[in-house]
Specification:
Elements (H helix, E strand, L loop, with lengths): L3 H24 L9 H16 L8 H15 L8 H8 L5 H7 L3 H24 L11 E3 L11 H32 L11 H4 L6 H24 L3 H14 L6 E3 L1 H11 L4 E2 L2 E6 L2 E7 L4 H5 L7 E7 L5 E2 L5 H8 L6 E7 L5 E7 L1 E2 L8 E7 L2 E7 L15 H14 L4 E5 L8 H8 L6 E7 L6 E5 L10 E5 L6 H11 L4 E4 L8 E7 H4 L11 E10 L15 E2 L37 H14 L1 H18 L2 E3 L2 H15 L1 H8 L4 E4 L1 H7 L3 H12 L5 H12 L2
Parallel strand pairs: 12-13, 13-16, 16-17, 17-20
Antiparallel strand pairs: 1-21, 2-19, 3-10, 4-5, 5-6, 6-7, 6-8, 8-9, 11-12, 11-22, 14-15, 14-19, 18-19
Helix pairs in contact: 1-2, 2-10, 3-10, 6-9, 7-9, 14-15, 15-16, 18-24, 19-21
Length: 714
């Protein structure tokens, strides 16, 4: 059987040949006019997608409809610019986009650009006029905040009314923030001092809501002036990039077009050095969404920014915030990142519809906190090992660099020396990484055999095996996952489950990303068009993962053996919630032998369900999740100041209940390994870091239940 690496190399050569053929066809076409950049880019990209994507789509009317729908979601994401008559004009092209890309034309893109430019000019005059007059916050009015529930305005009068409510809402948010700030200053006790403070310094004059409204409208005006100025600077290359990426995204969510600047940002992120807030961001339908918070980063240590949050505004310290709604990802990232030690304030919309201003001091990720770490938990005379892996890291440029598989092996050896009775392996919030490390890591728990199957569009699947018969750890094992466990995490969890080597515990399913992507530099592919460069890059899905039992990890993810109530279960996160995901399927299973001492999963599940049902902490969590789910669906907000403030206070109180649930739980007796503390010696910074690692786990009710499942096996 040929190796997966050889197959991938041959596949890359095939893609290169396809792009070269597309380049040749464009270069040798019959008409005398030289091809333009947009024609070359779109045609070559489609050639590559049609030949090299794992599941190539037919470029027909169905393709055209998908591109139309997705582009309309993005070009006017909150339906504030285009009128219904404009949409009707554009809809005439919904079955013609496939023919346009084949011809090398883009009438749909041209018309949408023309209409958006005209409506932008109209709206600029409109919002300035509306903001010149005060808003009445005593009237009973409401505003819809969910773009999917909004509709395009029927005419100019309806559009004006929608903008009036939108601007009133934006002003209301700022008035509420100013009221919070004023209350905070009032409640803050004066620092003790021997000098008697003057009347001028003891307190600031209390402002009325009406006075705040005047200043808030000025802030909103500045906010939109800056946003519209940025929109006016959008050039043809940026519009082409958005259009090209929309086409790519209709194949699957992980197939993307990177404009040259976007590729630079991607390369910086892949180096592992993140100077800024340390969060992975995604632009989706005009919104900047947090997909991951990197362990060891400024955001991680600050603690308030979470996956699923939507960033709406960004402020440099105390400066006036700038809107990032509708902004391209690279532009939003440029506002958020910055030098170590500087402050950025993010206004975020939480999944439960509450808003929060989060202050983060930018820093470089502390790489040590991204590495595998372990601790011990003492419980009724038993000692349980705890091992956390935040990501599957590997230094691909350095053969002697850090490897997550090697680090996990070392941590398991340290836990063995501690004579632990069982191990809880925590893969929650682990978004994946090195596939090879996932395979090697599975081998630490089994004798040998297949771990994952990797399939390309052509030919039989390749099987990646653990060939080492040694077992690093053979005792009771629980693997913790949640809906943010993805890719390599799912491969490892699936292998442990299929071998019946341990018990998988966590939320209803993992993320569901079971695909492999490769990045192709279009400048290398399109050598005949040097004068039109740079073209950027294309990231496309070329392979799919399958479990050794034959099922895919794509779309469905891994369903745990024991499902626990989860604080994030109300969020619509995961592959199945994205646009145009590849579906689940299955292939023939690989040949493997299950673990001889398989855990009694049914018995363990019944015991766990009994504990969870009688647990006050899990009961409170379930109640909180139900409230959060209800709040998330209630997207209509009041524009009456008193009602709005009450809604915000309620949302804030409910979002804080999770922390209260955790604190109310009986704390775990978890501590860093004695060996690690001896090696740290008198280095207080490192000792404090080790203490912080275990401190955050003491009240983790999910971890407590995982420990109970280990104890049930002893």
């Amino acid at each position: 059987m040929s190796s997966p690496r050889l197959k991938i190399g041959l596949y890359a050569s095939l893609v290169l040949a396809v792009f070269m053929l597309a380049s040749y066809k464009l270069y040798r076409r019959n008409d005398a006019s030289p091809p333009q950049k947009d024609e070359v880019l779109i045609k070559a990209m489609l050639q590559g997608l049609s030949a090299a994507h794992y599941q190539p789509e037919k470029v027909d009317d169905a393709f055209s409809k998908r591109v139309f729908d997705l582009y309309m979601k993005r070009v006017d994401y909150n339906k504030k610019f285009l009128l219904q008559s404009d949409v009707a004009q554009l809809r005439k092209f919904q079955n013609d986009i496939d023919d346009q890309v084949k011809r090398g034309t883009h009438e749909f893109l041209d018309l949408s650009t023309k209409l958006m430019e005209q409506r932008t000019k109209d709206i600029q005059n409109l919002y300035r006029d509306i903001l010149s007059k005060p808003f009445d916050f005593t009237k009973d009015e409401s505003f819809e905040t969910e773009p999917d529930k909004m509709v395009f305005a029927a005419d100019a009068a309806a559009q004006r009314e929608e903008w009036r409510k939108y601007l009133k809402y934006q002003t209301l948010i700022r008035v509420s923030e100013m009221m919070d700030e004023q209350k905070k200053k009032k409640d803050k006790p004066l620092a003790s001092t021997s000098v008697q403070p003057s009347a001028a310094t003891t307190s600031e004059p209390t402002r009325t809501p009406a006075e705040m409204e005047v200043e808030a409208r000025k802030r909103v005006l500045k906010y939109f002036d800056e946003q519209f100025k940025d929109m006016a600077q959008t050039d043809a290359n940026e519009r082409l990039a958005v259009y090209a990426n929309t086409i790519a995204n209709t194949y699957d969510p992980h197939t993307e077009y990177f404009a040259p600047r976007d590729k630079e940002s991607f390369d910086v992120a892949m180096t592992g050095r993140f100077e800024g807030i340390g969060a992975s961001l995604q632009e989706k339908d005009g919104q900047i969404k947090v997909t991951d918070v990197i362990p060891g980063s400024a955001s991680y240590r600050q603690g308030e920014l979470k996956a699923g949050d939507i960033i709406t505004r960004v402020a440099q310290g105390a400066a006036e915030p700038v809107s990032v709604e509708g902004l391209r990802l690279d532009k939003a990232v440029a506002l958020i990142k910055g030098k170590k030690g500087t402050e950025v304030r993010l206004t975020v919309k939480k999944p439960d519809a509450s808003t929060k201003v989060i202050s983060i001091i930018r820093d470089v990720v502390v790489l040590k906190e991204t590495y595998a770490q372990s601790a011990t938990i003492k419980e009724n005379g038993k000692k349980i090992g705890y091992l956390r892996l935040p990501t599957f890291y590997a230094d691909f440029n350095d053969n002697g660099g850090r490897s997550s598989a090697e680090d996990v092996k070392k941590e398991l050896e340290k836990l063995r020396q501690e004579n632990v009775d069982g191990v809880v392996f925590d893969l929650r919030f682990n978004g994946g990484g090195s596939l090879q490390d996932a395979v090697e890591m599975a081998g630490l728990f089994i004798e040998n055999g297949p771990v994952v199957q990797v399939r390309s569009p052509q030919g039989s699947p390749s099987i990646l095996n653990d060939r080492d018969p040694r077992v690093q750890y053979n005792g009771p094992l629980v693997v913790l996952v949640n809906k943010y466990s993805a890719s390599a995490s799912e491969i490892l969890a699936a292998a442990i489950q299929d071998y019946k080597r341990g018990v998988i515990m966590g939320s209803a399913s993992t993320y569901g990303k079971g695909t492999v992507q490769r990045i192709f530099d279009l400048d290398d592919m399109l050598g005949d068009f040097g004068s039109l460069k740079p073209f950027g890059s294309l990231k496309l899905t070329t392979q799919k993962f399958y479990r050794i039992n034959g099922g895919s990890t794509q779309f469905k993810g891994v369903v745990p053996d024991i499902i626990l109530p989860d604080a994030y279960s109300y969020l619509d996160q995961g592959e199945k919630e994205s646009d145009y995901p590849l579906k689940w399927d299955e292939i023939s299973p690989a040949r493997y032998k299950a673990w001889n001492a398989a855990p009694p999963v049914d018995k363990l599940r019944t015991a766990s369900q009994g504990r969870v049902a009688s647990s006050p902490s899990f009961k409170l969590m379930n109640e909180m999740v139900q409230r959060m789910r209800k709040r998330k669906d209630e997207t209509m907000v009041s524009l009456k100041l008193t009602a709005f403030r009450a809604e915000q206070e309620q949302a804030k109180a409910e979002s804080e209940k999770y922390e209260a649930v955790q604190k109310a739980a009986q704390p775990l007796a978890i501590a860093p390994l004695a060996l690690d503390l001896r090696q740290l010696g008198s280095d207080t910074v490192e000792v404090n870091r080790a203490g912080r690692f275990t401190k955050n786990l003491k009240n983790d009710i999910t971890l407590r239940e995982a420990v109970a499942v280990i104890k049930d096996q002893l």
